[in-house]
Design goal:
The chain is mainly α and about 200 residues long. It is about 75% helix and about 0% strand. Helix 6 packs antiparallel against helix 8, helix 6 crosses helix 11 and helix 9 packs antiparallel against helix 11. The longest helix is centred in the middle third of the chain and has 24 residues, at about 115-140. Pfam families: TetR_N (PF00440). Keywords: DNA-binding.
Amino acid sequence: MSKDEEHVKLRILKATRKLAAARGFDTTTVREICREADANISLVSYYYGGKEQLFEAMLDEFMLGKPFSDALRQENLDPVNGVEKLVARLFELWQQDPEISLILHQELALRSERIEIIQRYTLPAWSLLRHYLEQGRAEGLFYFQSLDLALLQMTGSIVFASNAAKAYPMLPLLDEQPLPPHEHLAQLTGSLLASVGYHSFTT
């Protein structure tokens, strides 16, 4: 594939992400995507096969969940370091690409037929988080009654609290200036570990 073709394909995917985040994937048309991308409308069918396939191609381009989850598994980290590294990587992804986070929220809220596609990209990370929680409880590092509830609490906090730029306009009760990213991550990680009963004994 030539560089020009790769450039056009990336423009189409970026336009899809931008419009789907702003208006929802269902209400965004192929014609609007191609207008935004300055691309011929026939190229969506040519490169991707149609609008629905474009959704998966967009996630494939912009979501990196499985590669970093596999890398963390290979590091064989202890539960605390595993949670810290996983949260940091997810936080970085949401900070870099809040539009993808918003699209995932929209699709899940609508219970769309694309949830199975989304799960292929998100479940590796959430499965790894569940593994760390289960291992940490077995080793006496974490204390909680329900693994499912602990996992739900953590995943919700990671996705929502990591995307502060979107959360602040939605919640008028939040009247403080957002923290710098490194402080935001430190507080988020500390809160998540405290929520599962972890106490650091370092001095």
